[in-house]
Amino acid sequence: MKRRNFIKSASLTGAGIIVGSNLTSCAEKSAEEREVPVSTGKTSLPLVIATWHVMDSTVKAMKILQDGGTALDAVEQGCMVEEANEKGQSVGKGGLPDRDGNVTLDACIMDKHGNCGSVVYLQNITHAVSVARKVMEDTPHVMLAGKGAEQFALSRGFQPEDLLTEASKAAWEKWKIEAKYKPIINIENHDTIGMLAIDKNGDISGACTTSGLAYKMGGRVGDSPIIGSGLFVDNEIGAAVATGLGEEVVKTVGSFLVVELMRQGKSPQEACKEAISRIVNKPNSDYKNFQVGYIAVNKQGVTGSYSIHQWFSMTKFQDGVNEQIQSDYFNKD
Ligand code: SD4
């Protein structure tokens, strides 16, 4: 089914979750133009991969890696590029708000030692991923939420900012006219950034940052800050990160599952595919009305990605080539 037809049929079913708002230029291209490999056997290091079309973020991360920086610095700073980009309406500043007009951010980060930090329902701070890193490095905890996370960020010198831009406010006001209890679905259109990197030493780190589902219920938290769901890194095996309808990722502990499948011998591509099949093969799965996508890398530097529906892509920077790679997908109806 073509993208526009799908949107129409999804809206006819009354389904609805918006995950992100900006159609990438890729989404406007024909399927023929978008025929690109889903995975390569290349294994040269360093490398960085990220969900969706985020070339500027991978450039930033690769610069750090090429200068001898760590994978941890690379994923943090790569994600920060998208957090600061006000045009990306599901990450950081400019993220679409919840139903009450509040922009609330979820983010996490994980290093080569298996250390991790996370923030949920963070308000008024653009760089949620950096706050997550501070939680990991400066506290005995893994996760801080809401006011506590914000106060912690302020205590570490982060500057408070109004994250609701004019464009996102206008979109929210338009949404309020109908204000469906369930947010609106747009399955191929996400911007959450999840990033995985391997540095010159072969060490892996990952990060994930999002403003979550647009027009979600106040207090809603998705998969992105949940270690094992939105992100998992095992420096012996590899790493995975998720995007899409977080509730479905949480129910299957998706990123941990992908890494465990790689541990059992599956390639990153096979592991992502299997994790998607756990979602779509559930009895009564409503998968036609939502999107989930995974990207993964193994310790050897082989990458893979897979999603439920068409239009998911991965940005990959390796061997001097920064490219958008279209993901293979389950629903070919
Ligand atoms: C969430 N997984 O909050 C995130 C949304 C997302 O692209 O991935 N958007 O459920």
Your description of this structure?
Strand 3 (116-122), helix 5 and strand 4 (143-145) form a beta-alpha-beta unit. This protein has an eight-stranded mixed beta sheet with strand order 4-3-2-6-5-1-11-12. It has a single domain, classed as (Glycosyl)asparaginase (Glutamine Phosphoribosylpyrophosphate, subunit 1, domain 1, 4-Layer Sandwich). Helix 3 (55-66) runs antiparallel to helix 4 (71-84), helix 4 (71-84) packs antiparallel against helix 5 (128-138) and helix 9 (254-263) packs across helix 10 (268-280). The chain is of the alpha+beta class and 333 residues long. The protein starts with a helix and ends with a strand. The protein has helices spanning 3-12, 25-28, 55-66, 71-84, 128-138, 146-155, 166-178, 246-251, 254-263, 268-280, and strands spanning 47-51, 105-110, 116-122, 143-145, 193-198, 204-210, 231-234, 238-244, 292-298, 303-307, 313-318, 321-326, 328-329. Residues 19-20, 90, 190-192, 210, 212-213, 222-224, 243-246 line the site of N-hydroxy-L-asparagine.
